[in-house]
Amino acid sequence: MSKVKVWDGFIRSFHWLLVVAIATLYFSAEEGMLELHFATGYFTLALIITRLIWGVIGSKTAKLSSLIHSPIAAIKSFKNNEHKAGHGAAGSYMVIAFFILILAQLGSGLMTSDDILTDGPLVKYVSTDTVEFAGWLHHLNFDILLYAIVLHVIAIVIYRIKGKNLVKPMLTGSSEQVSVTEPVTKSPLLAFVIFALCLVVLFTTWGAEPLSYLFS
Ligand code: HEM
Ligand code: HEM
């Protein structure tokens, strides 16, 4: 089998920037560095919005529609160790779970208050009960997200033991382990432009304040 490009540059950047962002969000929350937490939160929001748009207009392997599989297909794919380009059926469930968990974490964060000085930017628009619920969800959902990350890494290790190296393609973009002939990736340029636009919009609306604290 020859070397095939399976992940475009945006998907790979999205993945590894997401890993760094989640580590920074955890660290900043634990250390009470809420300006850094907020700024990283907006960065993560820009990442996920772009990823979802790229899931509609982007590469074949980035398509959200390619994540839909029956549970039976998922069980079979895990057993068969199939070699197809893009997420397998079982992996697709994990990816959907990540998108939902990350969106819930971001959405609840925007409505969370530390009850002292710092409010998420949507706190002023919602009731006290909603803020309380969002704070509760923000704590609980993060624990679930952590379990999902552990499970994700364990699954990657299991695939490696079974002879399938998934990490190398997520780093280099290419794989020798799949049998496809037609191109499955597009130029990521448009995705990076959308990402830059999302960053500009988010940081000029909500991000100016945390950034001014961070760099003063
Ligand atoms: C904060 C921790 C992590 C999160 C939130 C996360 C999340 C994700 C998401 C959302 C995807 C789907 C990518 C997409 O289609 O856009 C993915 C795929 C992937 N992740 Fe992670 N990840 C994390 C850590 C890791 C680590 C530490 C590794 C390496 C051991 C890893 C290896 C992979 C690989 C190889 C894939 C592609 C799987 C496949 O071929 O279907 N991830 N991850
Ligand atoms: C994926 C994105 C996010 C992750 C992973 C995350 C993670 C966390 C974690 C782990 C905590 C500490 C919880 C605890 O003490 O048990 C926290 C607290 C907090 N987060 Fe986030 N967060 C994210 C996004 C956001 C966003 C976008 C905002 C607002 C703009 C935000 C606002 C807050 C606030 C105000 C607190 C303090 C709550 C308190 O003091 O009880 N977070 N976050």
Summarize the structure.
This protein is mainly alpha-helical.
Topology:
Elements: E1 4-5, H1 9-30, H2 34-57, H3 71-80, H4 89-110, H5 128-161, H6 167-172, E2 174-175, H7 189-205, H8 208-214
Antiparallel strand pairs: 1-2
Helix pairs in contact: 1-2, 2-4, 2-7, 2-8, 3-4, 4-5
The protein binds protoporphyrin IX containing FE (HEM) (2 copies).
Description:
Its main location: membrane. It comes from Pseudoalteromonas lipolytica. This protein is mainly α and 216 residues long. It has helices spanning 9-30, 34-57, 71-80, 89-110, 128-161, 167-172, 189-205, 208-214; strands at 4-5, 174-175. A two-stranded antiparallel sheet has the order 1-2. Helix 2 (34-57) packs across helix 8. The radius of gyration is 19 Å and the shape is globular. The model has no long low-confidence stretch (mean pLDDT 93). One protoporphyrin IX containing FE binds next to helix 1, helix 2, helix 4 and helix 5.
Defining key terms:
globular; 216 residues; mainly alpha; 2 strands; binds protoporphyrin IX containing FE; Fumarate Reductase Cytochrome B subunit
